Amino acid sequence: MEINGIVISPDPRLRQECAEITEIGPEIERLAERMKQMMFDNGGCGLAAPQIGELIQLVVIDTDYTGADDYDPYVLINPVIVEQSDTLAPYNEGCLSIPGINCEISRPDHVVVEAYDLDANLMRYEAAGDLMCVCLQHEIDHLHGKTMFERLAPGKRIAALHDYQEARARGARPGETE
Keywords, A to Z (predicted)? Predict the structure, then answer.
């Protein structure tokens, strides 16, 4: 199921391992531009390709924008977490593919990610203790078939799934949180 072009949980596409991108050409560039626009239109700060039904390792992220004038997302191709701290920090996360709820997820509070940009340059992104740190991990999870539900302990997962069912029954749409 999709809403506003965003694949909504429990769609099986969100549970798929995504293929690495082997060639960066006009098709990938167009897809990245489409993802940027969809992320902005739905009020997100990150979007992974499987969230729009494309099972490839492509992510767009912009955690700092306040409007169209300063909107300039990073494009990450085949991102990999190459370093992460052992210290976990809780963060209240939302997801465009799981509208209407937030979940407190504990993740490493520092990560280093390597990914290619649209010019095939290997880039390195480092983030600690902020939304960028969480967003990098959240979006990379999507590329490996994991949603925030899979990051929850069983009891919290059951509660979150219940809250999500209620949110969907209310008509929650991508970009809406509690």
Answer: Hydrolase, Iron, Metal-binding, Protein biosynthesis
Establish if 176 belongs to a structural domain: no
Q: 142 to each of 9, 54, 153, how far by Cα in Å?
A: 12, 11, 18
Q: Is 139 a catalytic residue?
A: yes
Domain encompassing residue 87: 2-169
How would residue 1 be classed by pLDDT, with cut points 50, 70 and 90? confident
Sequence-distant contacts of 78-82: CB under 8 A, at least 24 apart: 78/20, 78/21, 78/115, 78/116, 79/113, 79/114, 79/115, 79/136, 79/139, 79/140, 79/143, 80/113, 80/114, 80/115, 80/140, 81/111, 81/112, 81/113, 81/136, 81/137, 81/140, 82/112, 82/113, 82/114
- The three-state secondary structure class of 101 is coil
Does the residue 78 lie in any domain? yes
Q: Structurally, how many domains does the chain consist of? A: 1
pTM of the model: 0.95
* Residue 95 counted as an annotated binding residue: yes
Q: Is 144 annotated as a binding residue?
A: no
Of the listed 83, 93, 104, 139, which one is catalytic? 139
pLDDT digits (tens, 9 = 90+) for 87-99: 999 999 999 999 9
